[in-house]
Amino acid sequence: MPLQTITLHINGENRPTTVRASDTLLYALRGRLGLTGSKPGCLNGDCGACTVNVDGWPMKSCLMLAVEAVGKKVTTIEGLHDSPIQQAFVKEFAFQCGYCTPGFIMNCHSLLEQHPDADDQTIKEWLESNICRCTSYIEIEKAVKAVMRGE
Ligand code: FES
Ligand code: FES
Q: Residue 36 class from Cβ within 10 Å (0-12 exposed, 13-18 middle, 19+ buried)?
């Protein structure tokens, strides 16, 4: 499949890159642009480790083609810069490993953007799209609520 040059808008910058039509956004981020914070887990939409923010919504970057992201605003974990949800993850002990955490943080970041007053049920349902086999999710919910309270 031929390579084509596209420009992606990532973390506030225009980033030209070269991809095949079948390359996923996750591949372009990690393999072409050196943004390795988004993790490849299942590669089929189940685990959420690859979650980024596209036009304000969480997106599993293994399920989106790089060419589909042209003209959209993409934010990766590298673009957050010590955001309130990152600080809350630290304060609430909301993570254990570096593999699932970037995806959880991006998902929570989008949740706070889309539903700044989310109720408990909404938070639980939103977190269902990310898998961690080691922790209880309780601390992650606490981190989201701490940001909602402005802490
Ligand atoms: S790697 Fe994308 S959802 Fe698992
Ligand atoms: S802490 Fe990352 S998978 Fe459980």
A: middle
d(CA 102, CA 120): 22
Q: pLDDT confidence of 135, banded at 50, 70, 90?
A: confident
Question: Any idea what DSSP says for residue 61?
Answer: T
Q: Which fold has domain 84-148?
A: DNA polymerase; domain 1 (1.10.150)
| CB of 132 sitting under 6 A from ligand 2 | yes
Characterize the bridge pairing of strands 51-54 and 57-60: antiparallel
pLDDT over 80 (residue 77): yes
Whole-angstrom distance, CA of residue 19 vs CA of residue 29: 11
Ligand 1: list residues with CB < 6 Å.
40-43, 45-50, 60, 62
Write down the domain spans for the chain: 4-76, 84-148
CATH number for the domain whose boundaries are 4-76: 3.10.20.30
